[in-house]
Amino acid sequence: MEVLERLTPYVELVHLLLNTNFTYLTRKLAPSDSLDRARIPSAVAKSYDEVLFRGGVLFDCVPGIPCEIKTPFGICFTALALWKGDGFVLIGPHLPERADGAQLEEILASQGVPLGLKEQYGVYYRDLPTLSRGKVRAALGVLAA
Fold first, then answer.
1. Can you tell me the distance from the alpha carbon of 123 to that of 103, in angstroms, rounded to the nearest whole number?
2. Is the Cα dihedral 123, 129, 130, 136 positive or negative?
3. pLDDT at position 14, please?
4. Contacts of residue 141, Cβ cutoff 8 Å, sequence gap at least 6
5. Other Cβ atoms within 10 Å of 20 Cβ, number
6. Cα–Cα nearest to 65, from 49, 78, 46
7. Model confidence over 80-137: pLDDT tens digits?
8. To which H or E segment does residue 28 belong?
9. Which of 28, 29, 122, 125 is the most exposed place for a label (fewest CB within 10 A)?
10. Are 108 and 121 within 8 A, CB to CB?
């Protein structure tokens, strides 16, 4: 049975319980089509690609141990390197805590995003689930064993 077929039940479960994506990536790290890029502000989408697919951070993850990845926009993904070099699973995007207006302005300014786009980014941030590290680790615990 292929890896993706074995993971299918987890995809639905994580989406249902955590309201975020559960994505499988092969070791080739091709950008995923599972993220709805139409909803993601362009600078945030670019940061996802830079951190997840070009930064090599996934290869630093130890198999079986959840690895938290935070983008320059403060948005998190939690990765798990699968045993036997089968690739990676990602939970996210999510926020570790809700960002208020001042925090959002600070993030946007630090990333060179015009504050005139604050409302667009604010809508995206409000739609992201806020997940504790414990919830995410529990969701990945079954696969880590």
1. 14
2. negative
3. 78
4. none
5. 22
6. 78
7. 888 877 788 888 999 988 888 899 999 999 999 999 999 999 999 999 999 988 888 8
8. none
9. 28
10. yes
